[in-house]
Design a protein that fits this description.
The complex is a heterodimer of chains A (about 100) and B (about 1000). With about 100 residues, chain A is α+β, with helices and mostly antiparallel strands. Helix content of chain A is about 15%, strand content about 35%. The chains are: A alpha+beta (about 100), B alpha+beta (about 1000). Chain A: InterPro entries: SoxD, SoxD_sf.
């Protein structure tokens, strides 16, 4: 069972308290009606599904109930970092270099 | 007592005898015996029949890896367990044991005919042998195969035992309490770490329990062992026995199954049978040792043929010699020590057959000293004996030729094909393995977790090597935990080091095609089967495994995986690592469902949510149905009524006078804040800006894909406050979806969302007399039609309680929904029942609610919709705000597929005379005489008898249904095809006149 750091509670807690919520950094278009069918399809359905670092959303559903973002390695399942919703995608190389 | 018990040997308690029965015969063993060791002490090797061929089988191992000696055990009603490993189950007084896979009895078994027909049951026989004629499959082949197949028989009664569950946090978890594990635990505990040490056996010591003659740090092995265990206790190490690490999960979480009572004569009342531990460890040391491999040759499965290490364990740990005259066949040095121990205990060693050309010098000397015939560079080509091995045929191998075959009489044949490091748990962590060419074994490579592997588990052999390695692992773990520690060498005298080679099946001078050389004993897979699988095109080891079933039995290939791989890689012509190793998956050993379920069974399996009015419904004889986690009153039968009669009566009473319904399970969400109306506009399809305070509206919620997700009536209580209702099952989903948009897409909106489902009890009153029942109880609200019209909401008092009162209708009748704080729900219900007595007020349940709403064509989300239904499909376009700039799902309503013709649309279905009840879920076709497979147009979603219409009616989703009104379609059902006419869904009071009162 994974341990997940909630960036709002600032605690590392078991996976049971959290729920996965899909890929991160997919922003709902401000004016959906202006989008072509293809653009709207891409927003609705097309996801990156990478092997390696995946930016994804989680919710601390049995805790503070906040949505937050995480970078997770889909090969090892390890969480590389978590950060608050709305924050920019972290530069993981620089973060690693700093550590 | 028994003839094979050796005096002065073993750790069983000779002062305490334990009686048990095996297939009805009473036997005696000692405290500390397993079923297998006690039976072997009586000379009983035959303990079961094999899975496919029903061949006689005896124990081949002495631990949980045992593939053959699987038995049924029982402690009385409900406490029967199939496939208990006789080699692991400790004796207890009164234990009842039965053998499996035999009829009429173990010694004479009719199913053994399969063995003569083995040519029919070769690899992949499922796919080819029983194919023709086609019609034979259902009537002949399948029933016979099903009757003959399977391991053991399943328990028939509910398991009356209790199972427990606990969490444990520890600095260091050491898995396996053999020499390496004990050394690791000790090193870490001495350095100050907090340590948990566990082992699946009844006592700790691992291989040391089978090797009393080595001397460790100057003390005999068992004395050293006792000293170390005492020190571990002194250091506060948590020691757990009869505990198996079944799985290694993310971030050092290890699942342990602790067996608590199966070994006890008398089980204390309420004691749990097993306990699941979820252990989170900072560091883990895996010291699981190695598993001995069989050799693969014709007749290697006969009772009396077993692993040399197992024979050594039966002798030294249990004081049982497995035979009087043994032949050893080995490719590893370790079997020599087994031979020496047995020889010293009085078993005549007829020969040691070493497949290698040059045995180690000192071992050869020792054999010679004991007068043992050592046949180096030899092979075994077969065995004889029906229920027990009688002789073994040995032959010389030189230059690839097998010559000079001769039979050697024996009553047991002890084999050793080397040792497989036990890396199951390591593999659960996604740690990678690497093939070691020198050892011909897979060893741990990259580890994804904070774990160390020590001892035989990483290919080491001999006590000094494994003990010292365990010490090093313990030190490394302690240092990683921030303690100071130094490695030290643990010295051993009389050590038993060794090396060996790994073989495919042994060479033979017989016909390989006729050899019954077993690789997987439990699934009856032979070397020939694996070669056949490769010949028939299987190249990956995963395909070979599935085609032959090698390694797929309950032992999960603990003994067969590597032998299978060696044969497959030889057949494919590639090196073993190129052919690959199958994936290890938890659990390590078979684990009861009870252990996984723990406390979550019966009423604790999942919560049952009950409304404040539930107790009233129960005491008034309601039948209940589950709706998501809720238990809801389904209907209220009177004496002699069945469901149909009760529902028809409830429907009529509601339409004719007044019905009362507990709607408390409806989801309720309070949407509040300065931006509440904007939020509602964005979430729901409907426009909300102009909805006045005190007014209510039907709200429709779509997913971003344009399909209906939920619906419910929403009331506006203030400029900034909406009382949202959702479907019973959708409440949590809707709140989650709202929170998601609010938190992540529109964090600028100033809105709070609060779940209030359980804060309010909700009672619906419907029927022409509803106002008359309610009005006398209402304070603070004019109830006249003018002051409180349809689709109104007000805050007032009802029966003295603060209330949110809605005038809405899910039945088409004059209707009210009264919300009061949940604690007053029952009192309100009783007040309404009292007030309604003069109108014969009728409590009704969910079934009547469903019928009444269907008569009006109102949908139930999830019944009349299935996640691919748009508002237009469901006749709800009127609920979609045409002038809104955006709402969730709006853009999708213009997607090409959602505007294309031929969508499944909701329509009514009426059969000719109304006497037929169409089945919900039944398919619909245009022409029942078309050839199969028929083109299916859709399916029936709702179907009921209507008391108001005096007939059955149905709703259905049908392709292009809105264009087909008046057309006839057909509904094939088990009793024939039924014609039905497509209608609108407004079945009753289409003009809505009944609301205007």
């Amino acid at each position: 069972m994974l341990l997940i750091h909630c960036p709002y509670c600032d605690e590392t807690l078991p996976e049971l308290e959290f729920a996965y919520a899909g890929e991160a950094h997919i922003e709902r278009p401000k004016d959906p009606s202006a989008l072509s069918d293809e653009e709207w399809r891409d927003f609705l359905f097309i996801r990156t599904n990478p092997k390696g670092t995946h930016y994804e959303r989680w919710r601390h559903v049995h805790g503070c109930a906040r949505y937050f973002n995480a970078a997770r390695d889909t090969v090892s399942d390890k969480f590389l970092t978590t950060y608050r919703a709305g924050e920019a995608r972290p530069d993981l190389d620089r973060k690693e270099a700093a550590e | 007592m028994s003839t094979y018990r050796v005096s002065g040997k073993g750790r069983v308690n000779r002062g305490e005898t334990v009686r048990f029965t095996f297939d009805g015969t009473s036997y005696e063993g000692y405290r500390g015996d397993t079923i297998a060791s006690a039976l072997l002490a009586h000379g009983v090797h035959l303990m079961g029949r094999s899975f496919k061929y029903h061949r006689p089988r005896g124990p081949v191992a002495a631990g949980t890896e045992e593939p053959n000696a699987l038995v049924g055990t029982s402690r009385g009603k409900g406490r029967f367990e199939p496939n208990t490993r006789a080699t692991a189950q400790e004796l207890r007084r009164g234990l009842t044991v039965e053998s499996q896979n035999k009829w009429p009895n173990l010694k004479f078994d009719v199913g053994g005919i399969n063995d003569r027909m083995y040519m029919l049951f070769s690899a992949g026989f499922y796919y080819k042998t029983f194919m023709w004629p086609r019609s034979f499959w259902d009537r002949v082949y399948e029933p016979i195969i099903r009757a003959a197949a399977g391991l053991g028989r399943p328990p028939e009664d509910l398991d009356p035992d209790r199972y427990a569950s606990r969490y444990l946090h520890t600095d260091l978890l050491v898995v396996g309490a053999g020499p390496a594990g004990i050394a690791a635990a000790l090193a870490a505990a001495r350095a100050g770490a907090e340590v948990t040490l566990m082992d699946e056996h009844a006592e700790m010591g691992g291989s040391l329990l089978s090797d009393p003659d080595v001397t460790i740090e100057g003390a005999p092995a068992w004395e050293w062992l006792a000293t170390q265990l005492a020190e571990l206790d002194r250091l506060g190490v948590r020691r757990m026995t009869r505990t198996t690490a079944i799985g290694y999960y993310h971030q050092n979480m290890v699942g342990l199954c602790e067996k608590l009572t199966d070994h006890l004569d008398d089980v204390p009342a309420d004691a749990p049978r097993e306990r699941m531990w979820r252990v989170r460890a900072n560091r883990v040391v895996l010291a699981q040792g190695a598993l001995e491999k069989p050799l693969v040759f014709d007749g290697n499965d006969r009772p009396g043929v077993m692993l040399a290490g197992a024979a050594q364990t039966y002798l030294n740990r249990y004081g049982v010699k497995v035979g009087d005259r043994a032949v050893i066949v080995t490719s590893h040095d370790s079997a020599y020590y087994a031979a020496f121990d047995l020889a010293d205990a009085g078993t005549r060693i007829a020969a040691i057959v070493d497949t290698r050309d040059t045995p180690r010098d000192d071992l050869a000397q020792e054999a010679k000293r004991r007068g043992i015939d050592l046949l180096a560079g030899h092979t075994v080509t077969g065995t004889s004996g029906r229920l027990r091995v009688k002789s073994v045929r040995v032959a010389r191998v030189s230059g690839g030729k097998v010559t000079d075959g001769r039979a050697v009489a024996c009553d047991c044949l002890l084999m050793c094909g080397g040792w497989t490091p036990s890396l199951h748990l390591f593999s659960h962590t996604k740690g990678t393995l690497k093939f070691d060419d020198a050892l011909q074994a897979f060893l741990p490579d990259y580890s994804a977790e904070d774990c160390h592997i020590a001892g035989a588990g990483r290919g080491l052999w001999g006590y000094e090597a494994t003990l010292s390695d365990g010490n090093a692992a313990g030190v490394a773990a302690a240092v990683a935990l921030g303690h100071e520690a130094q490695e030290s060498r643990i010295e051993v005298q009389g050590d038993r080091p060794g090396t060996g080679v790994t073989h495919k099946e042994l060479p033979t001078d017989g016909q390989p095609g006729r050899a019954r050389a077993f690789v997987d004993f439990q699934n009856d897979v032979t070397a020939k089967d694996i070669r056949l699988a490769v010949r028939e095109g299987m190249r990956s080891i995963e395909h070979v495994k599935r085609y032959t079933t090698n390694g797929m039995a309950t032992d999960q290939g603990k003994m067969s995986n590597i032998n299978g791989l060696m044969i497959a890689s030889d057949a494919v012509g590639k090196a073993p690592p190129q052919v690959g190793l199958t994936t290890f998956r938890p659990p390590y050993t078979p684990t009861t469902f009870g252990t996984f379920a723990g406390y979550h069974r019966g009423g604790h399996f999942e919560v049952t949510r009950k409304t404040p009015i539930d107790a009233w419904a129960e005491s008034h004889g309601a039948a209940f149905e589950p709706v998501s986690l809720w238990r809801r009153a389904w209907y209220f039968p009177k004496a002699g009524e069945d469901m149909d009669a009760a529902v028809a009566r409830e429907c009529a009473a509601t339409r004719n006078s007044v019905g009362i319904f507990d709607a408390s399970t409806l989801g309720k969400i309070e949407v509040q804040g300065p931006d509440a109306v904007e939020f509602m506009n964005r979430m729901y399809t409907n426009p909300w800006t102009k909805l006045g305070i005190g007014r209510a509206r039907y709200g429709l919620l779509l997913g971003e894909d344009g399909f209906i997700r939920d619906d419910g009536v929403i009331g506006r209580l203030a400029q900034d406050l909406f009382h949202v209702t959702t479907t019973t099952g959708g409440a949590a989903r809707v709140l989650t979806m709202m929170e998601d948009y609010l938190q992540t897409e529109w964090p600028d909106l100033d809105v709070w969302l609060t779940s209030t489902t359980e804060q309010w009890a909700t009672i619906a009153l419907n029927g022409p007399n509803a106002r008359r029942v309610l009005e006398p109880l209402v304070e603070g609200q004019d109830m006249s039609a003018e002051a409180f019209p349809h689709m109104s909401v007000a805050e007032c008092r009802v029966a003295g309680f603060p209330a949110r009162l809605f005038r809405i209708s899910f039945t088409g009748e004059l209707g009210f929904e009264i919300n009061v704080p949940a604690r007053h729900g029952l009192a309100l219900w009783e007040a309404l029942m009292k007030s309604g007595a003069q109108y014969d007020i009728c409590p009704y349940g969910t079934e009547t609610m469903h019928v009444l709403r269907a008569e009006k064509g109102f949908i139930i989300v999830g019944q009349d919709t299935d996640g691919t239904v748009t508002p237009g499909d469901a006749n709800l376009s009127w609920a979609v705000g045409k002038k809104k700039p955006d709402f969730v799902g709006m853009r999708s309503l213009a997607r090409p597929d959602l505007v294309a013709p031929g969508r499944k649309q909701l329509v009514g279905l009426m059969t000719g005379d109304g006497k037929v009840k169409l089945e919900e879920g039944a398919q619909i076709v245009a022409d029942p005489n078309q050839p199969k497979p028929m083109k299916m147009l859709g399916h029936v979603t709702s179907s009921y008898y209507s008391a108001a219409l005096g007939r059955h009616f149905a709703m259905a989703l049908i392709e292009g249904g809105h264009e087909m009104e008046g057309r006839e379609v057909y509904v094939p059902m088990p009793d024939g095809n039924h014609a039905a006419k497509i209608t609108t869904t407004a079945f009753y009071d289409p003009e809505g006149e009944r609301l205007k009162v």
